[in-house]
Amino acid sequence: MMCRAVRAVLVTMILAACAVAMPARAGIEAALKHADSIRTSDPREFADALAGLAAFEPEATPNQKLRIRLLRTYQKTLTGNYESAIADAIDIHQRTDDPTLKFRAALLAANTAAITREFSLGLRYLEIALAMQDQVPEADERHLGSLVAAILYTEYGQHSLSLHYAKQLLSLETSARTRCAARLKKIEAEWKLGTRPEVERDTHIAISDCMAQKEPIATGLLRGYLARQWAGAGKTAKAIELLETHLSEVEATGFPRLIGEIHSLLAEYRQATGDLARADQHARTVLELGEKDAYSLPLVIAHRVLFETALKRGDLATALDEYRSYAKADKARLDEVKAREFAFQLSRHELQQRDQAIGLLSKQNEVLRLEQEVARKSAQNTHLLVLLLIVIASAVGFWAWKTKRMQMKLRRLAQTDGLTGISNRRHFREQADALLMRCASSGRETALILLDLDNFKRLNDHHGHAAGDWVLARVAEACRSVCRDGDLCGRLGGEEFAIMSCGGDLAAAERIARQCREQLAAIDTSPIGHGEPITASFGCTTSVRSGPTFELMFAHADNAMYRAKAEGRDRIRIHGGPSGVAVLQRGTA
């Protein structure tokens, strides 16, 4: 088989020859249309076509150069380079005046932002694209707006809206590729809504349609739904055979999300048939894809399979480790669902505000028109108009005040933990990055302390979740009490808290952890009938030990904290220290 490099050279030569035989602009247009036509059906040929476009780029118009850049941005999305793809798509959208290019760039930004879980950004650019849909001259291009809407509303769990847009597309005369994608979203929405008993028949039709259009990603996703249907009907062996038969086609797409989804299904079904070795193998493949983009649900399934297979083999230590990973992934999945719901509701609220503002502006314009008309008639009507304007101005002021209050309330909800009143995980992370930059620019060291309450689940089980919530609130007060002005304090989730202190060295980190530990021990738990003191396991590090990046500091402090857990709880561990260093047990602090 011809290697990719040789194939790229040949494509470049062929396209260059075409450029000689026809006007340069016509050659570029033909190359652009060819690359765009295969961008989802043949990833390798698409990459070669992009390489060939480089021969035309020096002679391209500014608009054509932006179109080439947009195709390269599609390639970044297909290969999992999502952050760069979002930035490029937004930049193209802002640079171009071409309605079609502007529309497609907005759709790509919206679609890719949903993959990276930047839900508000994704919805904003989806609304931008849908608002300008009527400005796009080509029908096939306009249909992309409804298709991306169907895709994104699935991501946000709005399956009824997704089904609406998919059915709308299927009722129109669309391109074959668009029809394939619309069938996929229709099957997916109906499957998740549970509204179609004949969904298996429709899935076979959709698979045939997408195969005919040479769309391997859509075909692979559809086969995944067909396998789910068979497994749900007790035909697990048939589902495995289907997925294994086409696994090489799935992996050839290079699309991490599809690959992770199919491997997670195989892991689940292999485990159900007792083939634990292969179940483990497929699950670990999903975990290896996690760094790129293995979708959250496949990650949860993979960790669960590894936990259950280890348990069946009697490997309790591995089972415990995998159960922790499974619980963490499952919680992350639930947090993601909540974040999507919040983003969708926030977007709807912002849209409602914008509609209200537009409506108010329309009313104001109408009032001004009436003012001119009434002014010509009589002074009496003029006085009435002034009174009307005063009423409207009061309404505007009240609306602005109410909107400001709502925005402040939403900001507080987005930044604080509802139970404890301290920063939530996302806000703590944002503040921590800013604090690290300030400390680094002034040459000061930064300390990070993580703590996780010991035996918190047992407290919940014995005394109830209301008692657990009471303890979490007291722990947050204890963390706040040891913070200086400028220190950060946040609840990262569950019973895990964090403190970051600018200007704090290793000794300061130990001191803060020790003071916090003492504050926890001083909590009077008699109101909830808990006879044992509150303890926690602490992990500490500094920017000097771990480097001035939050990810490394968090990872090192987290490892130290789990080391404290493993060595008996109720103690403090320092990242990088020997096992006997900085161990503070009860009674020695």
TrEMBL record:
Cross-referenced Pfam families: GGDEF
Domain of life: Bacteria
Catalytic EC class: transferase
Family matches, as Gene3D superfamilies: 3.30.70.270, Tetratricopeptide repeat domain (1.25.40.10)
Domain GGDEF: 444-577
NCBIfam families, sorted: GGDEF
Name of the featured protein: diguanylate cyclase
Organism encoding this protein: Marilutibacter alkalisoli
Origin organism lineage: Bacteria, Pseudomonadati, Pseudomonadota, Gammaproteobacteria, Lysobacterales
